[in-house]
Amino acid sequence: MALFYGIVLQLLLLYACTLCNCALVAPPPLPGRGTAAELQVGFYSRTCPRAEDIVRTQVQKRFLLDPSITPALLRMLFHDSFVRGTDASILLNSKPGHEAEKEALPNLTIRGFDLIDEAKDAVEAACPGVVSCADILVLAVRDSVALAGGPKYAVPTGRLDGKVSIKEEALSLPSPAFPVEQSQESFRQKGLDLEDMVALLGAHTVGVALCGFFNDRLFNFRGTGMADPTMNPQLVTRLSTICPNPFFTESNADPPIDLDQSTPALFDTAYYTQILAGNGILQIDQAITADPTTLGFVNSFTSASTFFPAFVKSIIKMGNVDVITADTTHGEIRLKCNVSNSRAAARAPVPATKPGPAPGTKRGPAPGTKPGPATKPGPGPATKPGPGPATKPGPVTAPVPGTKPGSAAPKPAAPVTGRPAPVTKPSPAGQGKPSPVGHVSKPPARAKPTPVSKRPATAKPPAGSKPRKPPPRQVAPVTMPAPRGRSPVPKPPFGPPPVTPAAPGHGRKPPVGHVSRPSPPQAGHVGASQL
Q: What spans are recorded as compositionally biased (Low complexity) (predicted)?
């Protein structure tokens, strides 16, 4: 809805300017501009000999899927050349705090940016940093015209891409509602004469226009409340059923209408034949048949032998408007068509550095991970089965993770986590291999109950040692031994249960249903219960 009313507002403003005979003010000369003489056909024959073939291939692929890409590219080149010259400034995206030409109202319906980007990427893969986006746009237009049935021609190249794109400058594009004199002045400021203007309007033979650009001709021409009398009445009737009347409806429908009502997909001379019959869609299309200064060109361009050479001459001239050729202060070869090189460099991601330990830290497993090879029991002097001081059953505490094999065992009073040091479980059959010690944050697998008859003798605590107080928080409660004839009822292990004081020498629950004397302490994770 906003776009529809925006277009209508623009047309009303342009119409008011037409009634007031507003004069177009010539813009100041642009800095860093070269001349057409500095361009040449085959400019990339040595630096990138396949450049034109690569662009042609990309255009052919798109044309087979969407033949309307031809008028889209023609319109893009026209809007680019008439604003700051043919420097691909229309391709640049906006940046924070600055809107580019793309955001201007006349350019909101421009299509084909993705095709130019695809062609640029393909050329960059073959010749990085050689071919400009401005040249790719000119080449793409040339190839699309030929694919639509138009003339084939050679186009000079050697342009640089501009670095500036300003939204407000695109508002000076000539409007389709301009009269002939005002349109002629717009073309003259770009170095194009009256014949060039009429020949370039011939591109409307494959173009379309939204209803918002001409519905005043259908419903309220120049404020009369009537249709344009120069338009064919049959065409008025047919288009009135397609285009909504903005003065009597709030519909935001804005369908496209073919500017050539006979062969809209073919680049031919039917456009001139149609406007001579009163079937011009845009006001400027019909106006050039009523003005004596342009009527002669219209009549002559009904022949392809006259129109095609004139169109080739004019489209090349338009592509040479205010080109940048050698001034690298104002021009460059963009690596991406939608962003200048300086901005692309600023947005480039910082190369990722290889992760490693922070300065001053030792390499090793992070907390919460499984112990690495340094703490995993295996064959070696410290874990070799056999009798010895390190494997003798008794009050030997399990090694603390992070200590080297063979080092002295830490004192029981200084465990790493504040938990009681686990007692090593003696191996059966006299084997002195200690049970694996897991990380303190990961409990070991639940062990199966061992019959009382097969339990080893309880290891006596060292002389003079005192029972350690339980830590302030336990994963599971430690219960008192059940009285004879009764079985303890274990509490569910969910949530932080209250801690029950443990008697000296008792650190686990007896098996359910088993009546015996209190169980001796077992090796394993502190707080792990066995049922």
A: 399-415
Active site residues: 79
Task: Find out whether 204 is annotated in a ligand binding site.
Answer: yes
Residues in the chain: 531
Q: What is the pLDDT of residues 375-410, one digit of tens each?
A: 444 444 444 444 444 444 444 444 444 444 444 444
Q: Is 260 annotated for ligand binding?
A: yes
What kind and span of H or E run contains 235? helix 233-240
Report residue 71: phi and psi, to 5°. Answer: -65, -30
DSSP state of 143: H
Q: How many CB atoms lie within 10 A of CB 273?
A: 17
Under DSSP, is residue 336 helix (H, G, I), strand (E, B) or coil?
Answer: strand
Q: In this structure, what token pair is assigned to residue 111? A: 């299509």
Q: Which of 135, 123, 116, 159 is nearest to 48 (CA)?
A: 123
331 phi, psi to nearest 5 deg:
-135, 165
CA–CA distances in Å: residue 207 to residues 182, 203, 463: 22, 7, 102
Decide if 153 contacts 169 (C-beta within 8 A). no
State the pLDDT at residue 327. 82
List the structure tokens of 397. 């505490």
Distance of CA 375 to the CA centre of its chain: 47
- Give per-residue pLDDT as tens, 166-187: 999 999 999 999 999 999 999 9
Structure tokens at 9: 């507002």
SS3 488: coil
pTM of the model as a whole: 0.63
Q: Is 195 annotated as a binding residue?
A: no
Residue ranges and CATH numbers for the domains of the chain are 2-341 (1.10.520.10)
- Residues 112 and 91: beta-carbon distance below 8 Å: no
Report the Cα 72 to chain-centroid distance in Å.
Answer: 24
* DSSP codes, 43-67: TTTTT-TTHHHHHHHHHHHHHHH-T
263 in a known ligand binding site: yes
Residues 363, 370: contact at Cβ < 8 Å?
no
SS3 of residue 384 by DSSP: coil
Does 174 count as an annotated binding residue? yes
Helices 194-201 + 292-300 axis angle, to 10: 50
Residue 224 Rama label (left phi>0; alpha psi -120 to 50; beta): alpha
* DSSP letter string, 269-329: SHHHHHHHTT---SHHHHHHHH-HHHHHHHHHTTSHHHHHHHHHHHHHHHHTTT-B-S-TT
